[in-house]
Design a protein that fits this description.
single chain; 212 residues; 10 helices
Amino acid sequence: MKFTVVLSLCLAQVLCVPTPQDGSFVSFFNKLSDKFADGVVEDVMKLRRITKKVKSRCYDDEKQKEAIIKCAGDQQELDPENIIKILQADSEEKKAAIIKRVKETREKRGEIMRCVAKTLGIVTEDRSDINNEGVKNMINQSVIIKDEEVKGKISEKVAECINLSQSCGLQTVEEKVKVLFNCLKPRMMAICVASQIKEKLGIDVEDDIGAL
């Protein structure tokens, strides 16, 4: 259930539905549910499945998934497609239950993020800063691409994101981890897409996020 809650918040960002800042979760879910009317959410879920399929050809993120499950404490089947069934449900009782879950998850968001970061070894032992070598190890273990040139590009992007996460304006380790992942995800996906196009079609394309 917590995984579904997190996904609903992510969907809200993609669909330009502002997440609640004042506890108005009922209004938040009503707005999110309205997006079903024109098929937007279904399209987003289709895009998610395609993205996962492409990404799986380049990276193995099982360890990251295991860390999230461990830290979120979710023992139920992790099926993101359930978000559609839940938000479409007519039962006010179900809606109230998921709203409660959202509140609980938001309250524990920092705690979950610290736990995931520690489990993956990307923060220092005292949890005060990014562990540069830990980040590199995490990425290296997830990369299943064999092309050494592509691996080199990934290493360059990882270094850039580590440097970005060390920006002087970032005060907490939570902020640094968030910046790190927000930097890594689109860049690694861009490299993956470019490498697949080159491998399958023999065409060189830009591997920067601006090319996507």
